[in-house]
Write a structure and sequence with these properties.
Radius of gyration: 16 Å
Helix content: 10-25%
Largest sheet: 9 strands, mixed
Oligomer: single chain
Distance between the termini: 17 Å
Number of domains: 1
Shape: globular
Structural class: mainly beta
Order of helices and strands: EHEEEEHEEEEEHEEEEEE
């Protein structure tokens, strides 16, 4: 699964734009009065202005051998969100190492090095080491229903978890992180999980799909291109 484009919403468009360009150093692709978009490797991240935006969780894949360099790069720019004293989180079941930080909207942003992927790099870590958006949080009241919609649309399967509290749907290059928002908050901060609106263009098995999560309901479609 490939997240080609992810649109999320912000009430602080100007300062978010500054954060992603001046702090993280991302390439700005487009800027209008209401939107700004950035290149993240194979993906595009777009922010759209909205008065009542609520926080998100999303993740970005980095080279499988670069978690320590990524941490040092980030620590010069942001405060790392820890679990206890740990700055790098070891997800042994996923064979992955990850770190977290807030952006301006207190979105929980994750850099994750997935050891199963053949994407190691010998280059020095920088903003060009961000490979793709690989996760979007989807807090819900009914994980099973969201899975049935996504699986029925594109055939994506469960990567990890189940229908009770937590279910990662997709694969290591693209995952919907479904949690029951009544039972679970976001790791590692314990922040409340909101069913924040988002829009996505995703590719899977040589087809392109549109996904919209609005007012806690999924709407989907198949692109003709």
């Amino acid at each position: 699964m490939h997240i080609k484009k992810l649109k999320i919403f912000t009430s602080k468009l100007t300062v978010q734009s500054h954060f992603y360009t001046e702090i993280l150093g991302l390439e700005k692709l487009d800027l209008t009065e209401k939107t700004v978009s950035f290149k993240m490797g194979k993906s595009v991240l777009e922010f759209e202005s909205a008065l009542n935006a609520t926080p998100y969780h999303f993740a970005i894949n980095i080279p499988s051998n670069k978690e320590k360099e990524a941490l040092e790069w980030l620590k010069n720019k942001v405060e790392i969100l820890k679990d206890g004293n740990n700055e790098i989180q070891d997800f042994a079941a996923w064979n992955a190492k990850a770190m977290y930080f807030y952006d301006i909207d207190k979105n929980i942003v994750e850099f994750i090095a997935r050891k199963n992927l053949d994407n190691h790099s010998e280059s020095k870590f920088d903003q060009y080491s961000l490979l793709e958006i690989s996760e979007i949080g989807l807090p819900t009241n009914d994980i099973e229903n969201e899975f049935k919609i996504l699986n029925g649309l594109s055939g994506v399967e469960i990567y990890s978890g189940g229908f009770d509290r937590f279910c990662a749907i997709g694969d290591e290059t693209g995952l919907f992180i479904c949690i029951d928002k009544n039972k679970k908050d976001w790791f590692p901060t314990g922040d409340k999980a909101y069913s924040s609106n988002f829009e996505m263009i995703m590719g899977h098995n040589d087809k392109t799909y549109t996904i919209a999560y609005k007012n806690a309901k999924l709407k989907t479609g198949v692109n003709k291109d």
